[in-house]
Amino acid sequence: MARDSLLDRIGDAHAQREALHRQRTRRTVMRREGVACKVDGKALLDFCSNDYLGLSQHPRVVAAMREAASAGGTASHLVCGHHAQHEALEQELADWLQAPRALLFGSGYMANLAVMQALLGARDVCVQDKLNHASLIDGARLAGCDFKRYPHGDAEGAARQLAAHPDGAALLASDGVFSMDGDVAPLRALASVARTHGATLYIDDAHGVGVLGEAGRGSVDAAGLDASDVPLRLVTFGKALGGIGAAVVGDAALIEHLLQTARPGIYTTALPPAQAAATRSALHIARSDEGDALRARLHANIARFREGAARLGLKLMPSTTPIQPILMGADADALSLSRALEERGCWVVAIRPPTVPEGSARLRVTLSAAHEAAQIDALLEALSGVVGI
Question: Is 207 a residue of the active site?
Answer without folding.
Answer: yes
